[in-house]
TrEMBL record:
Carbon 2 of the heme B porphyrin ring is defined according to the Fischer nomenclature. It comes from Pseudoponticoccus marisrubri. Pathway: Porphyrin-containing compound metabolism; heme O biosynthesis; heme O from protoheme: step 1/1. PANTHER family: 4-HYDROXYBENZOATE SOLANESYLTRANSFERASE, PROTOHEME IX FARNESYLTRANSFERASE, MITOCHONDRIAL. GO terms for molecular function: protoheme IX farnesyltransferase activity. Signal peptide: none annotated. It is a multi-pass membrane protein. The gene is ctaB. InterPro entries: Protohaem_IX_farnesylTrfase, UbiA_prenyltransferase, UbiA_prenylTrfase_CS, UbiA_sf. This is Protoheme IX farnesyltransferase.
Amino acid sequence: MSDASFETRAHESEPQFGDYFALLKPRVMTLVVFTAFVGLLAAPVPLHPFVGFCAVLFIAVGGGASGALNMWYDADIDAKMRRTARRPIPAGKVTGEEALAIGLTLSAFSVIFLGLATNWLAAALLAFTIFFYVIIYTMWLKRLTPQNIVIGGAAGAFPPMIGWAAATGDISTASVLMFCLTFLWTPPHFWALALFVRMDYDNATVPMLTVTHGRRATRRHILAYTVLLAAFALGLGFTQVGGPIYLTVALVLNVLFVKGAVDIWRRDEAAAEADNYRAEKKFFKLSLLYLFAHFGAILVEAGLDRLGVWA
């Protein structure tokens, strides 16, 4: 959590709007908005466009609130890691108190208004997501166990379920499998990153798997989770949100993803370091395309279904 040094530094320059917006982790919010939007559109119950817009907006605000609370609590860790040292609080642009106030205010706002705009199941799922990310992951698991990414990944996997619930008022097999798609994608995605930025986690004493169990074990875990992910990703294609386009995309991407995981598993550290972790970086970049392509295919299937193409 942030200490006095962050508070002192935060007064060195006048904060700008962009500094406050950065607290919301806009790049992460992009994924939240997109997957929530897909969950909303893929649901079998049509929603008024304005209500749908409000639902996605409030889900995005809730995701941003989680990001602000995460930055408030993790300011000490962020200051020690090269890729996070320029975040608003350790960079001295925003105080910890401001981040906490923004996070709490936006959390309450997003949950209440999502419930009023759609239904209270969706609002409850959003509230639980914020609680899970801030309390379970940020304050507890992240500093305690190398399974932090595995369990904590649930927070980022809820948006499509929330979008689906906003439209239907319930939870279905399809929405649970959309949750599983993101949940199982998170560990190989972040562990691949950890393989080539390990010193960041060493310096911050964050118990990432690469730090606690070594890179060889991390490579084995990446392969295991990737194979499991492929099974769930293909299974999603046989639910009401799937179809020929989704199955084609899923088949191609999962073959490539499993091949990339096998390539990483086969490498030793000497070879990886010699070519500057080229295979690991390639796998990480593919993982970014992987999730967006799967949800994009679900979105296309939903659009074609609405047009009656598959009727």
